[in-house]
Amino acid sequence: MPVFFRNAAILIGISLCLTGCGFFGSSGQVGLEPPKNATGVVKIACTQMGAKYRPGGASPKKGFDCSGLVWWSYKQHGVDVPRLTTDQAKTGKKVSRKQARAGDILVFRVSRSPRGLHTGIYAGDGKFVHSPSSGKRVRLENLKPYWNDKLIAIRRVTK
Q: What pTM was computed for the model?
């Protein structure tokens, strides 16, 4: 893909996230609107769309692995979450899929190994922001069909 089109696609994605455009909606149930710091976490994560995946990465300059993106995004809003995926899978309060709201940490089982976990930040409306894997970039992605079956936990760390 030519650089111009790749950069244009990244800018469009970032602008959609920053303007809301339906990504930060609640589940449609009363009382489940995310607090402002939760939507802020999603917005800051979206600013990193297009950043390179890097094992152990946790900054815009170096790139991000999945837990590094989650950790960095929350840190920008003064919310301390663990740095490692296995610890992020246990942090905060567990909530059901029906209670999921923008800003929640999504935990996925991607392999059978004890360390086979992946995390991302729920953006609302069945979408999440994550740093997928080596050779890929931070992106906004649909839970369905691939990720939905791998979702094992939703953790809420914002009030």
A: 0.79
